[in-house]
Amino acid sequence: MSILVENLTKKYGTQRAVDNISFEVKTGEIVGFLGPNGAGKTTTMKIITCFLAPSDGDVKVNGLSIHEHQDEIKKKIGYLPESNPLYEDMPVLEYLEYAAELHGVPKSKIPNQIMKMVRVTGLDAEKHKIIGELSKGYKQRVGLAQAMIHDPEILILDEPTTGLDPNQIVEIRKLIRELGREKTVILSTHILSEVEATSDRILIINNGKIVADGTAANLRKQAQGQEMLKVQISDAENSDVIFNGLKSIETIAMIDPVPDVENTFIINSKDDSSSKRNIFNLCVQNNWLLTELTPLETKLEDIFRELTTN
Amino acid sequence: MKEIWTITKRELKSFFDSLSAYIIITVFLGFTGFFTWLYGSDIFFIGQATLQPFFSIAYWTLFFFIPAITMKMIAEEKKSGTLELLLTKPVSDFQVVAGKFGAALLLVIIAFALSLPYYFTIWAIGPIDHGAVWLGYFGMILMSMTLISIGIFASSITNNQIIAFLLSLFIGVFFLIIFNVLASNFTGTLGMFFSYLSLSTHYESISRGVIDSKDVIYFLSITSLCLFLAKSILSKRNIVE
After folding, report:
1. In what order do the strands lie in the sheet with A77-80?
2. Domain segments of chain B as ranges
3. Domains along the sequence of chain A with CATH
4. Most A-contacting residue of B85, B236, B238 (CB-CB within 10 A), to test interface
5. Which phi and psi (to 5°) does residue A60 adopt?
6. What is this model's ipTM?
7. Closest alpha carbon to A230 in A216, A245, A246, A217
8. pLDDT at A217 > cutoff 80
9. What is d(CA A222, CA A129) in angstroms, rounded to the nearest whole number?
10. Looking at the partner chain, which of A71, A85, A104 has a beta carbon nearest the beta carbon of B85?
């Protein structure tokens, strides 16, 4: 079940919450929407789920346009809205039954489907309680359970782990990972480690525009461009000797001594070249001891900050 | 149709799961019972076996009691965000409105059914005009449909239940009192016009036992207009400027 977003725009008055974005999500892919608050993640999701009509552009779910086939699309999508709204006065099981009936699950399959969801989301001990009595984490599970009750091919989860404790977060992420094997999943978050842990692909949205699109590794590579190494060398007379030695290596573009740590440097190689071997050889020639040689990765946080602050 | 029934069932159940249904039914029966049997122009004062006092009291009771049922129907879902959840399920905006309308109507009909003992007791006291009684109930149902649709419309334009309640009372006042007053103040076409708009004209003629298609059309057209407006307000989110 693929999702194709074409030139989607949503205006609220003069403000463009979503500004001409296009992307495609393929069957079985888990895509993470990343972006600061108010970037347009939720609006995009609301449009895909047929809750809001776009000002311009189109979304095609499995080739069906949201302008014409709303009912068919809604049947295929399981949606967990941002604040996880629930009928607080209903018991868990009754609520799941209601959600299943609304989704048109055949009556004979409803009990089975409910038990399956209760098991998958770990609600077994709480299933007879009234939703309002549940803790936030369990409410979130109820929200997930109702989103998946009709076994949808597409799951759209808006900040699925907000308000959960670290253990629950790990569990929910694991759950999303498992589900993502068979389903197409779009989830939004502003927690960076979360997209890395759950998603195959990351879309960074800022001011209603897509500013980056790719796997976490890809994004790193793009942002980085050149190799970055942290080097520590001992057994030399002083750090100036090492500095000069490093300077003589051709492939090194920039040497940056780390303040407060002796004989330690951050080295940027020239584009498309690696200096690891040359540094090692330099140490061997001078009989120095190479105590550290660590490749540095740009953190996702840095990429995010760079892309979303102007 | 199945979706409408699913929504109706849930709404009705939520009335009975909370105290609201019981309170509303008790108040309705208590209030109408008090004025039918014990106080004012009750049946002993009139000295006739008729449900007329019951119907004229029910007219005012429903005016207060129906906004109390409908005020939370859409306003609360808007406020808590469950409306978004509901509308992203495969149901249309109209089905949501119709489902809620159905639940309120069923609750009112249950309250009416529980008032049937009044009818049987009066029947036991003396000869009663059965046709007038059933028509009276029919008129009450028509009037309830009108008030419910007004209430749902009021509930759809705000996310505050109190505002929804007051607004539906305010709209109700026009149909129950103000048009009637205006009708008696004007003569000629204008007077006729206000008299036609006034709900009491139509309700009274039905509860007296006279049924006219004109009255039925009046109630049904206000009902469908208000439900259509409520549905349009839900669909407003989809308007692209």
Report:
1. A77-80, A154-158, A184-189, A30-34, A201-206, A209-214
2. 2-235
3. 3-214 (3.40.50.300), 226-297 (3.30.70.100)
4. B85
5. -115, 120
6. 0.85
7. A246
8. no
9. 49
10. A85
